[in-house]
Specification:
The protein is mainly α. The chain is about 70% helix and about 5% strand. It has helices at about 10-15, 20-40, 70-90, 100-115, 125-150, 160-175, 180-205, 210-230, 235-240, 260, 265-285, 285-295, 300-305, 310-335, 345-355, 360-385, 390-395, 395-410, and strands spanning about 50, 65, 120-125, 245-250, 265.
């Protein structure tokens, strides 16, 4: 008889990763321990002042002094307890509640800010206001990504839509002096780029990711060419749009802390505030939203009940492009006041990460985008505060946050099942 030798153990089994249910608790636990050890045990004991108001605010508030090391012990302990609760939920075969991740994340961020500001002041209003301003384009791009994937199209071209919208908004505002016209032109530009993506991916069945990447390269090349040939030599005429004024809402803008953060913003940011709940309502509370989501989950079933799959995908993606183009306008006439070469700087890809982190929900995606905006503003403030962190390391902050945030949910959430798959009738 021939001896039967047992099959060798799988190499993957020998070096198996922790079970999927334990990955988030382990990562949260690591962050909690880092918070306690780095900011508590090895923390800085120089006093830091949390400034809650600026000199021009209607209601002056005295700054709050704090010891960063004691804060590290207190918040670090809270984070460790929250992480322990996460392990308990995992042991009970339950999903870890999102509030545990929020507690640990906030504890880490507050301690990091206090550590950088040790021996000085932390301008809380500046950090929050800047975070919202810098995240406006990312939030709008994330909304475009949510709509696109819900209807079954992976909108990789968000980066190009932001960049194209920013370019056109700057040129139109510079030549006409009309910000409303500039915003409309930027939205149309984003829609046109979306229509190209839709045409190739829906009509010609080209891979959506490939088309999106090509469109990004094309828009980047076109804007770089016109920037060098036209905007650069004639910046006063074609690249001097300025920025839309901040519009304070009476009474609400005088509320301490929240007033200047939420109710003293530019029109593009107010539009972002309105679009987040509007997109959520349209997707989850209307017949149109039900049809859109059915196309992202099971287009064949939608087709059998009479929904025009490809036509609906085409025009829905066009609407998503309008929103992304508005995000591009927020980069120029809503923030910088001029077009800069490749000024989207990867924000379209960060918006896609916010879509995944936000589980294809407009509210959660917006919160994720705000996290990235805060990371970007923290980089700016840390550089101004003279932090001991190397500038190049600070510049990595938004992208490191993106990687860690997506890693938290990798493999834990499933997007629309038909996203990225062309629909054809057999």
């Amino acid at each position: 008889m021939t001896a039967v030798t047992p099959a060798p153990e799988s190499t993957a089994h020998a070096v198996a990763l922790p079970p999927r249910a334990w990955r988030i608790p382990i990562l949260i636990g690591v962050v909690a321990l880092v918070t306690f050890v780095v900011f508590g045990v090895f923390g800085d004991d120089r006093e830091v002042l949390f400034a809650w108001a600026s000199s021009g605010d209607a209601v002056p508030l005295d700054p709050t002094p704090a010891n960063p090391q004691i804060l590290g012990y207190v918040l670090g302990t809270l984070a460790v307890l929250a992480a322990a609760a996460g392990f308990w939920f995992a042991a009970q075969r339950k999903s870890v509640p999102i509030w545990i991740s929020l507690i640990v994340g906030l504890a880490f961020l507050v301690n990091l800010v206090a550590w950088v500001g040790a021996g000085g002041r932390v301008p809380v209003v500046f950090l929050l206001t800047g975070a919202i301003g810098l995240s406006t384009a990312i939030v709008l791009g994330a909304l475009a990504g949510v709509i696109g994937e819900r209807v079954g199209i992976v909108n990789i071209a968000i980066e190009g839509q932001l960049l194209g919208g920013a370019f056109v908004a700057a040129v139109v505002a510079s030549t006409t002096g009309n910000y409303l016209l500039a915003v409309v032109a930027a939205m149309v530009t984003g829609a046109l780029i979306s229509m190209v993506l839709a045409a190739f991916s829906i009509v010609y069945l080209v891979d959506q990711v490939v088309v999106g990447v090509v469109l990004i390269g094309l828009v980047t090349a076109i804007t770089n060419f016109f920037y060098s040939a036209v905007l650069g030599p004639n910046s006063a005429q074609f690249n001097n749009p300025g920025t839309m004024p901040r519009i304070p809402i009476p009474l609400l803008s005088d509320i301490p802390v929240l007033g200047p953060v939420l109710f003293n913003q530019r029109p593009t940011t107010y539009l972002m505030f309105l679009l987040v709940p509007l997109v959520w309502y349209m997707l989850f509370k209307t017949r149109w939203g039900l049809r859109v989501r059915s196309l992202g989950e099971h287009p064949l079933a939608a087709d059998t009940v009479g929904i025009k799959v490809n036509r609906t995908r085409f025009w829905t993606l066009t609407v998503a492009g309008l929103i992304a183009g508005l995000g591009g306008a927020s980069l120029t006439v809503g923030s910088v006041g001029a077009f800069v070469r490749e000024m989207s700087a990867g924000q379209g890809f960060i918006a896609l990460a916010a879509v995944i982190l936000g589980r294809w929900n407009p509210w959660y995606a917006a919160l994720a985008a705000l996290l990235f905006g805060f990371a970007s503003n923290f980089r700016i403030w840390a550089g101004q505060a003279g932090a001991a962190i190397p500038p190049d390391l600070i510049a990595m902050t938004p992208y490191v946050v993106t990687i860690l945030a997506v890693a938290l949910v990798a493999g834990r959430v499933m997007g629309p099942r038909a996203a990225g798959k062309p629909y054809t009738k057999e």
